[in-house]
Amino acid sequence: MRYRTFGRTGLRVSELVLGAMTFGEQGGVGAPIDDCRKILDTYTEAGGNMIDTAINYRGGASEEIVGELLQDRRSEFVVSTKYTVTRNADDPNGGGNHRRNLRLSLETSLRRLRTDWIDVYWVHIWDRHTPIEETMRALDDAITKGQILYCGISDTPAWLVSRANTLAEWRGWTQFAGLQVPYSLVNRDAERELLPMAADYGMAVTAWSPLGGGILTGKYELSEQGRLNAADISPDDRAVAQAVTAAAGELGVTPAQVALAWARQKGVLPMLGARTEAQIRDNLGSLDVTLPPEVSQQLEQATNFKVGFPTDFIDQTSRWVLGRAAL
From the CB of residue 100, how many other CB atoms can be counted at a distance below 10 Å? Predict the structure, then answer.
């Protein structure tokens, strides 16, 4: 396992992040605590040090399990959690990115996680009703108090993240150091605006669903043993999955390892959402996989992805704008 600094901070995080959305059996297929312990221990033995959860995962069970598993070794891990999603659907102020929900959500997460501080606190989803100035100031206040150390934002348009960081820079508040987005060979939308924006601000990027919801594991045809049925997968996604499986056969590794290696080589921090010890071991095997340039090119060609306007237009007109200087 190698380590990277988390954005423009000195915090060092492992190049694979353990996602704890699977921790707990509430609300569907998940992992009981004994399996979670095995998953965490296997990840730790490989050198992993960052675990990601959220206040709403498994109805709160995920944070509680993480808190129990990290008891007596909290300082060894970079713990991140998220707020935004409602704590109480009957309370009009139970959710959102406003100061009140941030405070009550943070208190809840700290209690469940059995800790005095959160290493990385994420705004989970854009709340259209709360001014971003309110959110950034509230986060900065929590950082000043030492309740959180760094902040990040997930599932939000690039223009709003950029505005938030610019406001924070001008007003002397803490900027977002991390961005969390869905990113995989079957979902490259983040390449249009979000990833370039993150690179310009020096933000770390954690990628959720790097296996495309299971499509890229090569097991989508086993509908009786998993969530996916080949008939429910689009022809485009099926073509990508077949390209991944072919590359895996060529390299002598598993499809999941190919998909994770591709994401890692794109500069993001893939999040592993394993439900069993066998799955986490397979995922960690991606650390030993380096995709040759020609294989990466074949995989990306299979996605048939186009960045679109305005990026394509700007690239196409560069000679018109700059003349010979564009060569």
Answer: 13
Nearest Cα residue to 127 out of 117, 138, 118: 138
How far is the C-alpha of 264 from the C-alpha of 12, rounded, in Å? 16
Domains located in the chain, CATH noted? 3-326 (3.20.20.100)
C-beta separation of 169 from 150 below 8 A? no
- Rounded to whole angstroms, the Cα distance separating 118 from 147 reads 6
Residue in 3, 43, 57, 183 annotated catalytic: 57
Amino acid identity of residue 12, one-letter, is: R
pLDDT tens across 286-325, in order? 999 999 999 999 999 999 999 999 999 988 998 888 888 7
Write phi, then psi, for 122 (nearest 5 degrees). Answer: -100, 135
What token pair was written down for 39? Answer: 């998953």
What contacts 43, CB < 8 A, 6 or more positions away? 16, 18, 51, 272, 280, 284
Contact 258, 285 (CB under 8 A): no
Quick check: is 3 catalytic? no
Give pLDDT tens digits for 165-175.
999 999 999 99
> In terms of Cα–Cα distance, which of 44, 25, 27 is closest to 35?
25
Phi, psi for residue 168 in degrees, rounded to 5: -65, -40
